[in-house]
Design a protein that fits this description.
The structure is a homodimer.
Chain A lengths: L2 E9 L3 H19 L2 E6 L3 H8 L5 H9 L2 E6 L14 H12 L4 E7 L12 H4 L4 E7 L11 E3 L6 E9 H16 L4 E6 L5 H14 L6 E6 H10 L6 E4 L1 H15 L6 E5 L5 E5 L16 H14 L3 H16 L19 H11 L1
Parallel strand pairs in A: 1-2, 1-3, 3-12, 5-10, 8-9, 8-10
Antiparallel strand pairs in A: 4-5, 4-11, 6-7, 11-12
Helix pairs in contact in A: 1-10, 1-12, 6-7, 8-9, 10-11, 11-12
The structure holds 3-isopropylmalic acid (2 copies).
One 3-isopropylmalic acid sits at the interface of chains B and A.
């Protein structure tokens, strides 16, 4: 019987309660698919600051190193927002994990589920046009990590600077990830850049073109980031895979997530070249609704499915979870934010949604 | 009688035909307000490349230097897209003009006009919530112009880099522009940054806070760029003035423009500290519809109104044009893109819209 080990980092806010449901689903997968998914919980984020003095304690990092994958909840909240930037949960834990494990390949799917179109902030005809985008974001380079970064000078001429930087190698590996994904989808990559202004973007475009030669079955387009934010609003169904640098991917993936109107359904994967990955919901820690049992666990559960698919090669189990989620949505077992305001009293709780998904499995 | 001189750079695509209507309106303003608006036309963009060999001929630059303001049409098109980047219309003409005249303060208003809500790609309730945003974008610094920029190294480790850079002085002057604008509007500035990642953004936030102390009647908020692109979709009515760096302003202003669904109505102003400015429509040269007499001239006409207000201190004339535009929209004299597809046969032509605005004046 195959056996895997998972570092479970639930974190802050709604993290722990949605992670409980993901664990239920993973228990069910163990039985149904005859695998062992050993899970060990580690502190991270604000909770780790409060209990261990830092957002990413060394035992947590060590636990992640020994695991086959990290299942991540969410971190941060107003309580830790006044800390110096470098100690805050987002930077000290999330950016450090990304960089430590070289998790360069970030997959963020965003789709509008049939029947849930009215949640989208977009006009009905646009929301119903068949929106299903995968943002492939480079996650360990670009202006997030480029050196030098700093402050210099005196008085009013004092200035701050950041460096946007990409090597051919870094662009090539994320471009390959995008083309591979597009082959399994609708065969189209749209590369997002600002090649009319940035030297980095020109190299980005050059390498995207080079890589595309190895994928004759995939179509490649280029779009400027400013136009991309417009087209996502006007006609999101035109996009299949969007290939983005770190900063542009941050922007594009959030706009795509919001466009669906159902952030609580969106998972994400951040992987390295060895298939090791961190899997987390697209939404944040939502401190305003934490602890009330009303948060949607689906993004966390679909993140677990991505983990099974990409880090454990358990595509069947991942498929089964994804089908169970669709069945649960179709059965109308929905948390409140997915319901029109006059139907909120019929909302299912976090654990009811988890239970239904297990049942559908 | 006061007298002003205007360099008229109509450019490519729909530029010349919409400029014709702006000129009609300025003729009417001369009579009604007893001013002289001397206009001289100069070649720019692709047209200048074809006729003079470069996108910004020296006689054009000289003409701009001698004028009180530049009224700009639009430039670029597929014909010139294969030129080396540095020679292309957008960079060689537009970015050069911005930097040559230190046009650091870019104002891009975006509003949804009552009655035109159905054009917006946003859901009806959002489009009807009273959307009226002014994006104040820094236009002569940041990653567009920061040095160094380049390429280095060999093989797969060859890398490209750009520098994002802001001095306190540069941030302060654009922040002041945003607060001044907010005082005349609804008293709220939302500063857009990525202060959880960028050193430049931290300085940006610091100076925005400093400047806000001089404007106790204006409220200041900060928002991350990724969240900004979400909030513009979800609840654009929350924004009054959005204060942005060059790159983030490029993205935010285009998303705001698209959100209105009526790009052909949106003007923009780019000004320096002496009140000299370049005024241009938010949309592009639209080569696909050029020469057919169907382009909407309103963005060009409202750009002329901004010019009268900001570079010539003719607020009354600007008000009058803006009122005439609203009256024209209310009278239903609309170009095709503002009409539902089944009513396009009743569309007014470019010159009919111009004539109606003159009449309403
Ligand atoms: C928390 C922040 C640093 C992070 C990012 O910008 O990458 C977040 O916005 C994300 O997209 O995962
Ligand atoms: C043409 C391009 C260089 C320009 C920019 O990025 O500033 C345009 O997108 C704009 O917003 O005016």
């Amino acid at each position: 019987m195959s056996q895997y080990s998972i570092a479970v980092l639930a974190g802050d806010g709604i993290g722990p309660e949605v992670m409980r449901e993901a664990n239920k689903v993973l228990d069910a997968v163990e039985k149904k698919f005859n695998v062992t998914l050993n899970r060990t919980a580690y502190p991270v984020g604000g909770y780790a600051i409060d209990t261990e003095g830092e957002a990413l304690p060394s035992k947590t990092l060590l636990g992640c190193e020994q695991a086959d994958a990290i299942l991540f909840g969410s971190i941060g909240g107003p309580k830790w927002d006044t800390l110096p930037l470098e100690q805050r949960p987002e930077r000290a834990a999330l950016l450090t994990l990304r960089s430590h494990f070289d998790l360069f390949s970030n997959l963020r799917p965003a789709r509008i589920y049939p029947g849930l179109e009215s949640l989208s902030p977009l006009r009905e005809d646009i929301a119903k046009s068949g929106v299903d985008v995968l943002v492939v974001r480079e996650l360990t380079s670009g202006i997030y990590f480029g050196q030098p970064k700093g402050r210099e000078g005196e008085g009013e001429e004092e200035f701050a600077y950041d460096t946007m930087r990409y090597s051919k190698r870094e662009i090539r590996r994320i471009a390959i990830a995008a083309f591979e994904a597009a082959q399994k989808r609708r065969g189209k990559v749209t590369s997002v850049d600002k090649a009319n202004v940035l030297v980095t973007s020109r190299l980005w475009r050059e390498i995207a073109e080079e890589v595309s030669k190895d994928y004759p079955d995939v179509e490649l387009d280029h779009i400027y980031i400013d136009n991309a934010t417009m087209q996502i609003m006007k006609n999101p169904a035109q996009f299949d895979v969007m290939l983005c640098s770190n900063l542009f991917g941050d922007i594009v993936s959030d706009e795509c997530a919001m466009m669906t109107g159902s952030m609580g359904l969106l998972p994400s994967a951040s992987m390295n070249e060895e298939g090791f990955g961190l899997y987390e919901p697209a939404g944040g820690s939502a401190p305003d609704i934490a602890g009330q049992g009303i948060a949607n666990p689906i993004a966390q559960i679909l993140s677990a499915a991505m983990m099974l698919r990409f880090s454990m090669n358990l595509g069947d189990a991942a498929d089964a979870i994804e089908k169970a989620v669709v069945a649960t949505l179709e059965a109308g077992v929905l948390t409140g934010e997915l319901l029109p305001s006059d139907k909120r009293s019929q909302a299912a709780s976090t654990s009811q949604v988890g239970d239904e998904i297990v049942k559908q499995l």
